Amino acid sequence: MKCFLLRFAQCRLLAILLTLPATAFSADIYVSKTGSDQNPGTKEKPLATISAAQIKIRNIHEPVTVFLRAGSYFLSKPIIFTPQDSRRAGQEATFKAFPGEKVVISGAAEIPVKWSVYKGNIQKATVAGNFLFDQLFIDGQKLRMARYPNYDSTASHFGGYAADVLSPSKIKSWKNPEGAYIHALHKHEWGDYHYVVKGKSADTLQLEGGYQNNRQMGMHDKYRFIENVLEELDAPGEWFFDKKTKTLYLYPPANIDLKTAKILSPQIKHLFEFRGTATSPVRNIHLEGFEFAHTLRTFMDTKEPLLRSDWAIYRGGAVVLEGTEQVSVNRCYFNAVGGNGVFFSNYNRKSEVSGCHFDNIGASAVCFVGDPAAVRSPSFEYHESVAYEKLDKTPGPKTNNYPADCKVYDNLMQGLGQVEKQVAGVQISMSMDITVSHNTIYNIPRSGINVSEGTWGGHIIEFNDVFNTVQETGDHGSFNSWGRDRYWHPDREVMDKLAAAHPELILLDAGKTIIIRNNRFRCDHGWDIDLDDGSSNYHIYNNVCLNGGLKLREGFKRIVENNIMINNSFHPHVWFAESGDVFRKNIVTKPYFPIQIKSWGEEVDYNLFPDQNGLEKSQANKTDAHSLAGDPMFVDAESGNYQVKPGGPALKVGFVNFPMDQFGVVSPELKAKAAKVPLPKLNVLDDGQAAKEISWLGGKLRNVNGLGDRSAYGLPDEKGVVLENAAESSILARAGLKKGDVIRSLNKRNIDNVTELLDVFQEVNWMGEGEIEFFRNQQLEKRALPFK
Q1: Rounded to an integer, what distance in angstroms lies between the CA atom of residue 49 and that of residue 30?
Q2: What is the per-residue pLDDT for 16?
Q3: What CATH number does the domain containing 761 carry?
Q4: N or C: which end of the chain has fewer CB within 10 A?
């Protein structure tokens, strides 16, 4: 009987234990800078390295947390997780910073140096050992390679640029520039080029590189600079390393004490890698709470062309995920890493990046890029095409070797593209069903969110706050996409015929609808939402566009409804016949800006215009039969609440209010760090009359007002816009305009008043530069005017 009762009690205990949550069985392993890999890994006797903890937990078949105690962990090679490290559901492994302690995962080595005076303010030190010198950090401060021109935080591109970088006289001034780098924008500002100097002969440099853009047109003739040249070491905070003599030269910043300063130089490109496959993935491992820092720049490795685009990519980042399932990177800080932040390459399922802060990093924050071999009939360069007879006409992907069902949620992304300019907060290519939600993205040279080609759709882009974008490139938007899928042909006439004869081709790749909803976008140098060449199968609704409006270039089956466009409008460009496009129940605050539109899609109607003139222009094109004109009656535009008041005319055409307080990051710590979007001043006054004065490109401008102005400025009539003042650092002042200049035309379009100036500017600002005519001293002058 006693034996029976004992067995009964054991069974009861086992049953109770099986009902407890998995965390009740969780194990903890500890790693510390003061530990030893001979220790058991307890809190009292921690391990010393992450690698030792990685091996130890392979034999722990229950949920496990590896706590790293405070300190900087310097890696000489990446931590690589393979299928051998994979965990079963309910047995997850989390590598985590100990609560309340700062843990830095660094790819740098500490450089021992002894300084002596070189000349003037410049110090030098001989470096023992074989270290890479790509970036230099002194006491946590990132310094710059010796460069020409010197760094200028107010410059519009590259922190300073000069057209004469490759001039014979400049090249002659450098004794031995081998190992220097030329950085330049693409000629059309679609991205960037980078070259390493292999040597020089007389006044010519031998360059290697220039493959970073997939639409080759050569470097920009103005936006470029050179770095890593000894003769250019002439400003505080610059440095140069002579590889041959292993001598480090430094012009120290004023706030650095070289006697005690710690010098770090990155040595590796990646910190963590997850390396599995579709058939043998790495599962259920999480990284949480770390600061990632000090990785090498990767601009010379950006070589792989993406499908039919101007993009090239490097499949790497501080954290690389390839062949994963349910792997996550949570609440981590990516601090000035040299390349991409997180890179999802090929097969990944249900993995995510959440709660992270990406700050001043070299390239993109998060990238999803699938396997080109998974694409049917792929083409890689813009002008490539596959003949209809040779096309694989099976819908969808060929294999499952691509990211799908992954998430980017609640991340703060700022100051991206510090080195590379063809970047995004989130880049998506050859992927499916990616959710990009509640991210705040700003201060970026290109687009905040970029969807490359239509393979294979299904993405949800929602509740993001994206602004201060397209700051150094051109012809993009805060959201940017293109299609260029199997039906695409570089000859528009051929493509029109192909799409008309074989409409079944259109959605072979873009088979699942991409949803863009409940976002707030602001782009001052392009469009807020830019659907470019061939972007198809989109549903865009409940978005606030604060400045650049919404552009639909040629594509198919786009439904755009219930959006608000502040100080701008709808930009339909070169649509296909029978596109199936819909634009309805939107609020626009300018007339449409169509370019070469012969067919207006399935429906353009039930929209609200700011005035009768704009409405009548659209109705002349046989659209907007049921649309209305009038004051949208926003609740509180000054504070960013663009919901409309009861009785507003927008409600009469079917517009429905949506929340205005759910954009961007949601976690309190990221909210506290995130900048606020700059809200625009409405360019229409409350009484419906056109504005009489504006702020534009850093200047204050007003309408010409009466005969007094005509006489004072020597004008032939009472038309134009007077520049009242402009700060020295403003775009207008840097372009040579002065107080009292009267603007008369922009890009050969007559300007009668400030409203017309803004209307024309909204049409052309994506070009990055225009031609302005103005009166000065009673003479008409012309001048090139950059827009950034």
Answers
A1: 10
A2: 40
A3: 2.30.42.10
A4: N
Residue that has been written with the tokens 């995920």 in this structure: 321
Q: How far apart are CA 620 and CA 618, in angstroms?
A: 5
Q: Across the strands, what pairs with 605?
A: 584
CA nearest to 195, candidates 207, 212, 206, 204: 207
- Angle (CA) 769-770-772 rounded to 5° is 140
Q: Closest by alpha carbon to 100, among 69, 76, 123, 127?
A: 69
DSSP 528-586: EEEE-TT--SEEEES-EE-SS-EEE-S-S-EEEES-EETT--EEEBSPPTT---EEES-
d(Cα 302, Cα 305) in Å, to the nearest integer?
9
Distance CA 290, CA 392 (A): 45
Q: Is residue 550 part of a domain?
A: no
* Most confident residue range from 183-197, 716-730, 736-750, 751-765: 183-197
Chosen domain end from 246, 266, 286: 266
Residue 348 and residue 325: Cα distance in Å, rounded? 6
Are 125 and 242 in contact by the 8 Å Cβ rule? The answer is no
Identify which has the larger pLDDT, 7 or 53: 53
136 membership: H or E segment, kind and range: strand 136-138
Q: Which residue type occupies 589? A: T
The answer to whether 242 and 106 have CB atoms below 8 angstroms apart is no
**Contacts with 177 (C-beta within 8 Å, 6 or more apart), sequence order:** 171, 197, 200, 205, 226, 229
Under 8 Å between Cβ of 231 and 174? yes
Q: What are phi and psi of 164, to 5 degrees?
A: -90, 15
Question: Does the pLDDT at position 82 exceed 60?
Answer: yes
CB 543 within 8 A of CB 566: no
pLDDT of 1 reads 47
Helix (H) or strand (E) run with residue 182 in it: strand 181-186
Query: What confidence tens digit (pLDDT) does each residue in 143-195 have?
Result: 999 999 999 999 999 999 999 999 999 999 999 999 999 999 999 999 999 99
- Cα separation of 717 and 750, whole Å? 13
On whether the CB atoms of residues 485 and 502 are closer than 8 A, the answer is no
Q: With contact defined as beta carbons under 8 Å apart, do 639 and 661 qualify?
A: no
Token pair, residue 211, equals 């493959």
Of 206, 239, 266, the one marking the end of a domain is 266
Residue 161 belongs to domain spanning: 110-266
